[in-house]
């Protein structure tokens, strides 16, 4: 009888361990990390961070923190013509924003919040997408390596900005327009 009890307890321990391993593997497979264009869909949202190499992660599109919306999956050159930032995956030599050349890329729309301020670095920087960030409107950083803007309005569609404002509009994934005031 003791052997039956010990055998049952051993089977229960094995079942718990196997279940834990399976749950861990399933959770690891659902990582929010984006390694290439197939890891994210048009309309999903991402953040970009990292010093030398971009670290791209999926985020909720409902987030009020700065993020990007995936507007298109495209070949090089398409994004600039449509007012999107470009993020390419791959290795080689090029002059894109990460110093890499790739055939597969994402066109990203900036997602700002009305009334907030943002630093937009010079596109010549090595990892410029990771350096786009929200800033304190009352004490913006020096503008030597980019520009600082306050989002004065956000609309669903083409914005109607004054002459003193900069306009930022993206048609995809949903038409969104912003009127920005340059902070000096």
Describe the structure.
The protein has 184 residues and is of the alpha+beta class. The chain has one domain (33-183). It is 20% helix and 35% strand. The protein is built from three helices and eleven strands, in the order H-E-E-E-E-H-E-E-E-H-E-E-E-E. The protein has a six-stranded antiparallel beta sheet. A five-stranded antiparallel beta sheet has the order 8-7-9-11-10. Strand 10 and strand 11 (176-183) form a beta hairpin. The longest helix has 28 residues, at 2-29. The protein is globular and about 80 Å long. The chain starts with a helix and ends with a strand. The model is unreliable at 20-29 and 92-102 (pLDDT under 50).
pLDDT under 50 segments (min length 5)? 20-29, 92-102
Number of domains: 1
Which shape, going by the Cα principal axes? globular
Strand order in the largest sheet: 1-3-2-4-6-5
- Helicity, as a percent range: 10-25%
Provide mean pLDDT, rounded: 78
Could you spell the SSE succession in H and E letters? HEEEEHEEEHEEEE
What proportion of the residues form beta strands (DSSP E)? 25-35%
Radius of gyration: 22 Å
Assembly state of the chains shown? single chain
Largest sheet: 6 strands, antiparallel
> How far apart are the termini?
83 Å
Structural class based on helices, strands and sheet pairing = alpha+beta
Count of DSSP H/I helices: 3
Number of strands: 11
């Amino acid at each position: 009888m003791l052997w039956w009890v010990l055998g049952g307890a051993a089977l229960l321990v094995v079942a718990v361990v196997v279940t834990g391993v399976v749950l861990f593997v399933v959770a690891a497979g659902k990582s929010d990390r984006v390694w290439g264009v197939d890891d994210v869909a048009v309309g999903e949202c991402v953040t970009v961070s990292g010093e030398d190499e971009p670290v791209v992660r999926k985020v909720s599109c409902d987030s009020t923190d700065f993020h990007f919306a995936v507007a298109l999956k495209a070949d090089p050159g398409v994004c600039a013509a449509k007012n999107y930032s470009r993020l390419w995956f791959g290795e080689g030599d090029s002059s894109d924003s990460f110093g890499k050349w790739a055939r597969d890329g994402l066109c990203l729309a900036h997602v700002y919040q009305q009334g907030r301020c943002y630093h937009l670095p010079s596109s010549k920087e090595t990892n410029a997408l990771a350096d786009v960030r929200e800033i304190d409107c009352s004490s913006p950083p020096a503008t030597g390596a980019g520009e600082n803007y306050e989002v004065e309005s956000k609309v669903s569609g083409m914005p109607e900005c004054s002459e003193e404002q900069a306009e930022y509009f993206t048609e995809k994934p949903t038409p969104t327009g912003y009127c920005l005031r340059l902070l000096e």
